[in-house]
């Protein structure tokens, strides 16, 4: 099922879902349950129903897109509801025609399969390691982030939790790293800030932390400037931000000639997102001089990558 495939789908906020027993009960109560006869324990019933939903929606691209639209907009269905969507228990049978718990559950699976985005479920990160936590929290609004973090901390020693988060900052994605820095600086008090202080002298990571926290006493070395610029832009790109925001994060109001010079130095960094950031400038920058500089930088980046092996 690949009808809905949007590589630029912004990160979606978490959803709330009941447990398997409640979802399976909704399946058994769905209008089409008598015809499709889902049998077995709760996990088996849900697996069978998910497959039935995929098959029915694959037959009608309009229904598939409507289900995804309802999920992304969180708004009621316009006009009359589809008998298929209500029959499968995905849309409530009375106005307002919004997605049911079952509809949210199925739509989340379909979006994961078609876009690769695994939309988080509230409470699902409690047993995760720190890297998975930061990855999951990327799309959380502030209030939900605090709730999820509280669940993660419930059976953990706070100091050990701080150390665990600090230990993964260098290895996670740019946006996950930004989330981790924010958590340590704002959610963990003095303990978190001390952990960040200890990381300031780390190559690359320390420069990113200093840039995000405005720590002017820790200036990036010439080799780190490209890494910091790419990391900041990549976090916006990862979130699904507008290309204009990504460009401005590096352009910072500079004239085109200055931007072209800044773009040129990006090729000399080894940030894993450099190529993706340069492609944004190539494809979307309004000034051809800057786009040309980005194309040249991308060629140089590839050449240097070959030399590094």
Q: Please count the helical segments.
A: 17
* Integer-rounded radius of gyration: 23 Å
Q: What is the number of domains?
A: 3
Q: What distance separates the N and C termini?
A: 38 Å
**Beta fraction:** under 5%
Total number of β-strand segments?
Answer: 0
Fraction of residues in H or I helices: 55-70%
For the largest beta-sheet, the strand count, sense and barrel status come to: none
**Would you tell me the overall average pLDDT?**
92
Residue stretches low in confidence (pLDDT < 50, at least 5 long) are 1-7
Categorize the overall geometry.
Answer: globular
Order of helices and strands: HHHHHHHHHHHHHHHHH
From the helix content, strand content and strand pairing, which structural class follows?
Answer: mainly alpha
Q: Helices and strands in order, then pairings?
A:
Layout lengths: L19 H10 L3 H4 L5 H17 L2 H13 L9 H5 L13 H15 L14 H7 L5 H12 L4 H11 L5 H13 L2 H11 L5 H9 L8 H18 L3 H9 L4 H11 L7 H11 L3 H21 L1
Helix pairs in contact: 1-3, 7-10, 9-10, 9-11, 10-11, 10-13, 12-13, 13-14, 14-16, 15-17, 16-17
């Amino acid at each position: 099922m690949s009808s809905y495939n949007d590589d630029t789908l912004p990160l979606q906020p978490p959803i709330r879902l009941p447990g398997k027993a409640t979802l399976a009960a909704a399946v058994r109560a769905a209008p089409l349950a008598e015809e499709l006869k889902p049998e077995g324990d709760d996990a088996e019933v849900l697996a069978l129903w998910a497959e039935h939903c995929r098959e029915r929606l694959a037959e009608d691209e309009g229904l598939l897109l409507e289900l995804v639209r309802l999920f992304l907009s969180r708004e009621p269905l316009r006009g009359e509801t589809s008998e298929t969507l209500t029959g499968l228990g995905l849309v409530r049978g009375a106005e307002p025609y919004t997605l049911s718990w079952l509809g949210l559950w199925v739509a989340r699976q379909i979006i994961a399969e078609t876009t690769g985005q695994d939309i988080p479920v509230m409470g699902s990160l409690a047993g995760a390691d720190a890297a998975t936590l930061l990855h999951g929290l990327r799309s959380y609004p502030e209030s939900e982030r605090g709730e999820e973090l509280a669940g993660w901390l419930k059976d953990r020693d706070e100091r050990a939790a701080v150390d665990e988060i600090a230990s993964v900052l260098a290895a996670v994605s740019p946006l996950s790293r930004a989330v981790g820095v924010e958590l340590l600086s704002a959610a963990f008090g003095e303990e978190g800030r001390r952990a960040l202080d200890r990381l300031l002298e780390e190559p690359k990571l320390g420069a990113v932390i200093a840039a995000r926290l405005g720590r002017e006493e820790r200036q990036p070395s010439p080799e780190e400037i490209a890494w910091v610029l790419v990391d900041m832009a990549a976090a916006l790109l990862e979130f699904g931000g507008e290309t204009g925001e990504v460009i401005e994060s590096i352009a910072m109001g500079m004239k085109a000639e200055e931007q072209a010079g800044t773009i040129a130095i990006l090729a000399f960094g080894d940030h894993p997102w450099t190529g993706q950031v340069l492609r944004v400038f190539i494809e979307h920058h309004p000034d051809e001089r800057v786009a040309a500089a980005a194309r040249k930088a991308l060629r140089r980046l590839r050449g240097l990558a070959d030399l590094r092996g």
